[in-house]
Automatic annotation (TrEMBL):
<feature type="domain" description="N-acetyltransferase">
    <location>
        <begin position="10"/>
        <end position="176"/>
    </location>
</feature>
<dbReference type="InterPro" id="IPR051908">
    <property type="entry name" value="Ribosomal_N-acetyltransferase"/>
</dbReference>
<dbReference type="InterPro" id="IPR016181">
    <property type="entry name" value="Acyl_CoA_acyltransferase"/>
</dbReference>
<protein>
    <submittedName>
        <fullName>N-acetyltransferase</fullName>
    </submittedName>
</protein>
<dbReference type="InterPro" id="IPR000182">
    <property type="entry name" value="GNAT_dom"/>
</dbReference>
<dbReference type="Pfam" id="PF13302">
    <property type="entry name" value="Acetyltransf_3"/>
</dbReference>
Amino acid sequence: MFAHALTDDAELRPLSPWHADEFLANLDRCREHISPWVGASFVATDAESARKVLQAYADRWARDDGGLWGIWQRGTLVGGVLFVSLSTARGVCEAGCWLEPGAEGQGLVTRAARVIIDWAVRERGIHRVEWITKAGNDRSIAVAKRLGMSRDGVLRGAAATPEGRADMEVWSVLAPEWTT
């Protein structure tokens, strides 16, 4: 089984449909914390919808256009990183993350994102890695900065939310700029 150590007590592993119960428990612990920042389709509310989210990403992995990995700390799923999209034909992917509050501040997301971005750039030939987040998501923007990304700009009113339209910030790093 693939596992990549992030710290002495945390590791990055594939997150598969058979992890639905763990994924749902993780979402239950961080639902309120992440709901302003992630799409409603990601935030599963029961075991079946959790399995469907994970299956959708497994299908994307099989089609070579996305992927999902969990961050386990001391044996508990606490968050993860993902490729929202991945196109080797275009040489572009979009990375993202989520994390429960109790695991924040330890560099887990930054370390995990470095692993998948490095793989995309070095193994898959991705030229541009994007990080797109709602404006005001300071923790996500901080990760983009720690990853050496540049702020490309703001897409004003680009995302529909229950509260109305939201601005989205676009950050990116290009393969020639990427260092781990």
